[in-house]
Amino acid sequence: MKLYTEEALVLKSVSMRDADRVLTLYSRAGGKFRAVAHGADKPSSRKRGSVQPFTYGKFQLRRGRELDSVEQCEGLEYFKRLRESLEGIAFASYMAELVDVFTSEGEATPGIFELIMESYGGIGEGRDSIIVRSFELKLLSLSGYRPHLENCVSCGREAGDGRAVLVPALGGLACSRCATGHAPAYSLKRDAVEVMKLIMKWSPDRLARIKIGGGTEKEMKNALRGFIQYHLESRLKSVRFLDWLENE
C-alpha cells in the first residue's frame, strides 16, 4: 500500500473502539478527507497530541480500502490562544463544523484552507466574535452563497432608509416591499450592513480595528446564523453550544 505525506488541519477527531480515532482533515491541496489513526487514544501513543481538533500537522498516511490510515504525525501548529478559553474552543468548533458541512471530500475549494488557518490564528486576541462573522461571510462567498449586500436583490432599489432586511430565500438584502411575505427575514441597521461589507474584505489581523456596538454585533450574528441555517436546512450542533455559552 502506498505511503504519502500531507500537511492538514484536524477539523474533527472522533474516538472509536480499540483506542482508534477517525479524523476529518483539511489540506490546501487535497481539501477535506478522512483518515483513521489506529491506537491514537492510548496513553503511550506518539500520535495522541497531533490528532486533536484544531491542530495543524504533517501526516504520513497509508492508502486503505475505505479510509487511509495515519502511520506517523507531527503537530506543526496548535493554536494555543484559542484553547485558552471555552469561548475560543466553541468558536473554533463552529468554524470547523461550517467547513465540514460546506465542503465535499476530495475537493479543494481555493481559499478555504487559508481562511480557516488565518481565522484560527486570530482567535484569542480580543475580537473573536468579529473574526467569526468575517469567517461566516467569506466561507459563504467561497462556497457560492455570498449574500447580496449592495441594494434590493429583487428590484434593485435602495434597501431602505436606516435599516435593511436580509432575506435568505432571496439571497441577500431586500427593500421592505420585496421582503414582504418572506420568512425568515432579518432586519439590519445600515451600519451593520456596512460592517459586513468591510469584514468580507479585511484579513483577520485587521479586524481588531473595527469598533461596533453590541446591538449591531448581535444583529449581524442573528442574521448570518439564520442565513446559514436556511441554506443548510439544518441547525449546526456547535450553534447549540454557542447559544448556551452566550446565555450563561
UniProtKB/TrEMBL annotation:
One family name in Pfam for this protein: RecO_C
Location of the DNA replication/recombination mediator RecO N-terminal domain: 1-79
GO cellular component terms attached to this protein's record: bacterial nucleoid
Record key words, sorted: DNA damage, DNA recombination, DNA repair
DNA repair listed as a keyword: yes
Domain of life of the native organism: Bacteria
Gene Ontology terms: biological process: DNA recombination; double-strand break repair
Function of the molecule: Involved in DNA repair and RecF pathway recombination.
PANTHER family: DNA REPAIR PROTEIN RECO (PTHR33991)
UniProt family annotation: Belongs to the RecO family.
NCBIfam families: reco
Stated name of the protein: DNA repair protein RecO
Species assigned in the record: Desulfocucumis palustris
